[in-house]
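G., before I forget:
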Amino acid sequence: MNALSTTCSVLRLLALGVGLASAAAAQTATVRGFVTDEADGQPLIGANVSLQALSAQGAPGAVRGAATDTDGFYAVVGLEPGRYALRVSSVGYEALVDTLALPSGVRALDVALAAAAAELAGATVEGDREASAANLDAGLQRIRPVDVRSVPSPDVSGDLANYVVSLSGVVTSGDRGGQLFIRGGEPTQNQVFLDGIPIFQPFHVLGFYSAFPADLLQSADLYAGGYDAGYGGQLSSVLDVSARTGNLRRFAASASAAPFVASASVEGPVVRDRVSAILSARVSTVEQIAARYISDPLPFAFGDLFGKLYYTPTATSRFSVTALRTWDRGGIGDPEASATSEARADEVRYQNTALGARYLLLPSSVPFLASVRLSYSDLDSQLGPRMAATPEDESRLTRASRISRFDGSFDFTYLFRFGGLRTGGFLRTTVLRSALGGLFQNVVSENETVTEAGLYLQPEFRVGGLRVSPGVRVTTLPLQSQAFVEPRFRGAFEVGAHRLSVAAGLYNQPVVGLSDRRDATSVFTVYTVAPDRQTPRASHLIAGYHLRAASWADVSVEAFTKEIRDLSVAEFTAVPRLTTRLIPASGRARGLDLRAEFHRGRAQLLVNYGLSSVVYTTVSARNELLFDDATFHFRPGHDRRHQATVIASVPVVGFTAALRFQYGSGLPYSRALGFDQFLLPDGAPDVYNDPGMPRVIYERPFNALLPAYHRLDVTVERVFPLGAAARLTVQAGLLNAYDRANLFAYDLFTLRRVDQLPVVPTLGFRLDT
Amino acid sequence: MTALLPAARAWRSALVGLVLAAGLAACDDSIDTPDSLRGTYTLWGALDPTSDVQSIRVVPVTDTIGTTSAAPLPVTVTSTDLQTGAEAAWRDSVVTFSDGSVGHIYRSTFRPAYGSRHRFVVRRPDGSDISALITVPPFVEPVYQTPLLVGGVRYPVLWPGAPQLNRVLVTYTVQETSCALAEVTRELVGTSGPVEFGWQTVIHLAEDDDTIQRIAGGPRGLRRIRITAEVASEDWRPPGGVFDPDVLAEPGSLGNVRGGFGFVGAAYNTLADFVPRLTDLSSTSFLNTAGSCP
């Protein structure tokens, strides 16, 4: 009932907003449109559009402005009719300057910017740096392709995953496994979108790679928490990736090869200036190339296929279709173990399939932006023996989980002089299927369906340097008879070079991922409706300070806390088995991120430090038996207290050298004191015939720390022009340069360790036309 | 910061990081190993005052799972009767189980007295001991209490002085119309517990009636009821009163071994055996076969 009443209130506000916006638009002037790259017609994100009022005598007045969004769209609203000096600028492009006479009403103005001369020569022009690792805005970081490319990577192109894992507050299972923990949240509590399509496991099994190579990236917004009402359904973080559209003016192609991955892409106009397409494919070459000169077993294979069609039917509308297919196969545990040995020889396999369409519309008479999305996304994952003796064994020992989601949503953005109003609604159905053979939670198979419907409202008010954006998201689950009302808030106050920002919100997650995280190798996740209908919920609070110390230096510090309730964690047991019982838990993550970024020409230096603490708490009668206290606090396996990263790149005599150093303090794990055999003492044991079952003798769960993680990666790259229309990029590098034996997995039952990659020399080539 | 940061300075800062990295490279990458439990043992078994041969399994705690070797254990195993002072020597015998694993079963030839107390000691080469104090339960004879007939037939049996009953099995001897006899055995669950003078078991015949008939394959006559109870030492009481494998698997949740793990108790089986009266059975579905069969 409360949810219904809130929904009605939202709709009333929506109607009021439309009315006010229309009335206001009729009396004032509005300029809006798209800013694109003149060379290829692609949208330019973050371009600044400023309008300065000119008096009748031509004297300059107040300046109003706006920045373009991921569609390249901008709007400056609430202007007094009159003459204005227009300036449109973007990093690396020649600014456009003009004079406009604006009558009342809406004026459409699309702008195409030409690349600056220096950019044409292959240099990066220093300019406005709204996007920067050290430019945190209450948990939000905008990531640009150039940031991603600046990090040493085993191949020439770079990948979003390789960049994200360098950020403080992001804990990974290393260069194997593809699991990301963001500010205390677990991997299944993160939400990842590609052009608005949810991608459930976008990170490849080899941790350098994801479904988002830098070449396809237009921008990515990483909310480490405190995200606004436009997002929902997940507890911890949001990574919202926008893929590049294809070239609208000419055909282009690229191909690359490196020891870990080979890729090819092609793009171009299907109908010049109207329709473009881009198609990209990557396939791992780990087993074909890297494994030939690396002594450690590398049982990894993965790939992805991406396509996007972009269509501009009219000057005021855009239509795009995005498709993605990924596949992964990787051994976990001890790579040398056989299926019959005590050591683990499991293999995880997963495939994402995603398809989505988006229609963007600008009505002609009101400062209003509407978009409609439809998408389908599916993740099919299996965990089973790498080498089963028989097909029957394979079937019996393989666990499978599948999540499929159909999603429809609409978003409206109204703009007014002192801010804007974003609102929208969604309807999505998630189908969950699992076949576990009784090997997990004693569940054999399950089929569940969850339908969620809801609305959100996120107005934003700007007065001077103050930006305030309170929001609310209302979600109902009719099949589960549940409803959530989630208030959100984001705000900032900016004075000169200083900015204070704050974000807070409540979050619920009806579909949860269950993993047995008693050790570090657990990469298989079962998706299900929250156990016992106890939907996990979280509250976030983030407060940050950002200082633009100089045009080349950004410094930020941010504190955060996440309180999570109704988590499900595996119950501790001394019996080594995969069947675990779930017990309820609560979690608390707190921390501090410090970042500093310096730029000078094409040289850059980024320094991150993260301090965090994650504590889970379980309350059960069994705890009292085991620990003499019903309440048990522990540090989960992803609680990395200290993290530091240094990323530097610098041009040196025609080459670009880059290095990344990462440090992470040791992760908690349950240290076994020893192993014995357990005979159930429910009567005099039959000592002659009962062999007993293996047992782990623990002191307490998560009672010890694994060794610290640190490594250094270095690369040197050079671009060789091949005539006017092509160029060859050659990159050489050294991963894990000083051959640190960083731990990936530690089998508690055999005490055998599996390390991450040893020192790996790489050599990659890339050809662009 | 008033001056622009030169590129060289940025690069120099990076090099500092590099040097730092090199320094850290010398850091230990090994996993912190716990104080070794090597030389620690887990003991499982029970003294039996009805047997002349006693057997207790000694499991060495190992560094890796499932790796018990058949090699002799470097220990000396003895037990002492704390009342008489008599010491018994125990000898290792290696048993290969059906799953191929091996176990060390220590055996000794003696019969502990009812109510006696013993100290079982595993002595390591350094002279340190792992020990368990064992109390043998007293001899118990069942007392057949008056059957309760209201609300279904119930047979209470008192086991006076019994400190603990572990498993209680009820065997029903049923008779077909052809006079052939058969036995149906069920574990008594939920109606066995401590009372003021010992332990009481209650058989709910009405509740078992249908189950017995189903197992036996049709209507039968009931000729005899036998209760096999394992009388155990007082310390053999699981946490919460329930033998929950998940709880008991936790080291220390039911243990009496000092310096090691496991549980060594004392237990023996004793019987209660009686013939139900025909009048008791008239309200049940059991047939009256007494008249037609010997």
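Residues 7-25 of chain B form the longest helix (19 residues). The first strand of chain B starts at residue 41 and ends at 47.

More on Monday.
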